[in-house]
Amino acid sequence: MVKAAFVGFGEVNTPREIIVDKCAVAEAGLVKEGMELVTSIYPITDDYEEKDIKRAVAALSGKDFDTLVLCIAGWIPTHAVVKVAEHFRHKPMVLWGLCGWIEGDRLVTTADQAGTSALRKTFYDLGYNFKYVYDIIGLPSRTKKVYNFALAASAREKLRHARVGMAGYRDMNLYGTLYDGASLKREVGPEIETFEMLEIEQRAKEVSDEEIQAVIDNCMSKWTFLKPANPESMKKAAKYYLATKAICDERGYGAVSLKDVDGMKKLLGFPPAPIFMLLSDEAGLCTVPENDSLGNVTQLMVKYLTGQCAFYLEFYEFFEDRVLAGVPDYVPAEVVDGRVTVMPAAFGELSEGILNVSKVKPGKVTMCRLTSIDGEYYMHMVVGDALSPRKWEEAGWTQPAPQLPGLEILLDDVEDFTDKVMCQHYIISYGDNTEAITNLCDMLGIEII
């Protein structure tokens, strides 16, 4: 739940019942959006003895909330709001101005925007982390904007305590998947913890045959196999999944990556696609291969904002009006169009594994990628229309080559996107999620490019 505190303000000489009624409607709208209001107090006025101000501070103190919603239901002198807000300046805030109404042939106002326009620059000058929202007579209340900002504040708090598990380090000696631990912790929040693949192997030896069979019977049986897989591959997938899940559960990881090409495939002789599928679909973890640290962090950001699995795709071809993005291993069941479909297949000199060849759902998508440039963090983001791809294959697969999961994503300006592309992996979510991602990045001081 998105947890917020709600304080409604109105000038002491404005009829009390008007302020109360307006605040009650605004409060109900936020609850309807899905917000949990841990404290809700109104009307708070500018009474001479400041009893209301003290009452508001007392009601808010000690409460667990991520966002402070300051609802301006009428004119209110600036000092009355600031004297409440200043106690919680470390919290993200929404400065929300309500509006008047039409009564017969005339407009009636309580001067809500006189209050907010007096406060907006003051909040800026005081260094508050805030969103300014105002309602308009005759249009629906902008409760969604208030909710979206509060959602971003909730995501920011989750990120501050998030942990990512990284089995191994720097697969294939890639540069684009590296990270700086101190700046990531300081600026974004998550902690990335590295554990050795040896630990997975050791844990896998402790997994019982009964546990392995249970995964095969209850989880992998959901998949549609185009050809029967080697029973030994099924058992390896199950035991490595259980071993990795145990580590993630113990350490509270919300996302995980494995050393893929130079690790699981080279050292253990087992392509990890089915392990990732199980970790995503059964354990609910964000997953990306190849020790892609900032890919994992981007996934957590998107998941906390959208509730989606935030899957990865990588680029294969650029066209004038679109990009071909796909994966050579797996996609989560959540994004599959139809049934999860797999088949045994081998690529080049690598051992045969269980490859996901499912179709991916088309639709409007948001592609984004967190990156670091000279110690500063940026989010590259674009919205496109994803279509089912034409028939295509990656050279090197055992013939007949599999149709890999993928999408052709139509973009307004492909060259602008490719001029800024930050990595081969981008994180995909369905819908236009730019407002939510922008809100979070603004809170974290991350520039959108």
Q: What is the level-2 CATH architecture name of the largest domain?
A: Alpha-Beta Barrel
Number of β-strand runs: 21
Count of DSSP helices?
A: 14
CATH class of the largest domain, please? Alpha Beta
Average residue pLDDT: 95
**Uncertain stretches:** none
Give the overall shape, derived from the CA principal axes. elongated
Largest sheet features: 6 strands, antiparallel, barrel
- Which radius of gyration do the C-alpha atoms yield? 26 Å
Domains counted in the coordinates: how many?
Answer: 2
Helix content: 25-40%
Defining key terms:
Rossmann fold, six-stranded antiparallel barrel, 2 domains, L-fucose Isomerase, Chain A, domain 3
Question: Explain this structure to me?
Answer:
- The chain has 449 residues and is α/β, with parallel strands linked by helices.
- It has two domains: 2-159, Rossmann fold (3-Layer(aba) Sandwich), CATH 3.40.50.10940; 161-448, Alpha-Beta Barrel (L-fucose Isomerase, Chain A, domain 3).
- Helix content is 37%, strand content 26%.
- The protein is built from 14 helices and 21 strands.
- The chain has helices at residues 16-33, 51-60, 78-85, 112-125, 143-160, 181-187, 197-206, 209-218, 231-251, 260-267, 273-281, 293-306, 414-420, 434-444, and strands at 2-9, 35-44, 67-72, 93-97, 101-103, 106-108, 130-134, 163-167, 191-195, 224-225, 255-258, 286-287, 311-318, 322-326, 341-345, 353-356, 363-373, 376-387, 406-410, 425-430, 447-448.
- The strands form five sheets. It has a six-stranded antiparallel β-barrel with strand order 13-14-19-18-17-20. It has a five-stranded parallel sheet with strand order 2-1-3-4-7, with helices on both faces.
- The chain starts with a strand and ends with a strand.
- The mean pLDDT is 95.
